[in-house]
Amino acid sequence: MKRTAKILAALFLGAVVLAACSSSPSKSASTTTTTAAAHHSTTKSSAPVTTTSTTVAASATTTSTTLAAAAAPQNESATAQVKSSITAAYVAHNGLPAAQVAGPAPGTVYYAYVPQTKTYWAIASFEPTPNADMQTQVAMQDDGCCGIFTSSTGTSFTDTGGFLGEPCPGQIPAALFTLWQIQSPGDCS
To answer: 101-131 as b/e, with b when 16 or more CB fall inside 10 Å?
Structure first.
């Protein structure tokens, strides 16, 4: 009888462990309980033996969807620190006097993290201050208006180039066009 109890305890513990291993809410677990008569050779009596087995069905589609979502770019909040950092990178890259650049134009900053490359990306259009001289105002026109920025930390950015209207393919990761719902201009070469 002790041996039967040990077997039952081991089966129960195994079922509990298997059920606990189900870490995704999209996985389903089903439990089947079977009762059979066991015969003990010395007493010739029968006692019910309960065997419990747990089947865990994992969805490969759910797993791959979860992994794809984890690798997809994620929008981030463009804080005042981020805006200040991309403005400093823009000013340095374009050789402009910092006092004549007001910063990003309202509603033009797009900022995201790309897990695949562990890189933060930002794009923005910039405005001159009201007292900016003619040279600065001219420099900030056309493709001088805008910047594309990258960072591995999300705090210190590098200006990788300008664009007019929207970035061209190859200037930013293709997934960011979708995430930011922007379209590449037709005049890219």
So the answer is: bebbeeeebbbbebeeeebbbbbbbbbbeee
146 and 125 Cβ atoms separated by less than 8 Å: yes
In DSSP terms, 147 is beta-bridged to 124
Note the pLDDT tens digit of each residue in 145-180. Answer: 999 999 999 999 999 999 988 999 999 999 999 999
Q: Could you tell me if 93 and 147 are in contact, meaning their C-beta atoms sit under 8 angstroms apart?
A: yes
Query: Tokens 């960072």 identify what position?
Result: 151
CB 106 within 8 A of CB 120: no
Own/partner contacts of 13-19, CB < 8 Å, gap of 24 or more, are 15/52, 15/53, 15/54, 18/54, 18/56, 19/54, 19/56
Q: Do residues 177 and 183 make contact, with C-beta atoms less than 8 angstroms apart?
A: yes
* Predicted TM-score of the model (pTM): 0.64
Q: Where do runs of H (alpha helix) occur along the chain?
A: 2-20, 60-71, 80-94, 134-139, 174-180
Consecutive H or E run containing 41: none
Contact 137, 128 (CB under 8 A): yes
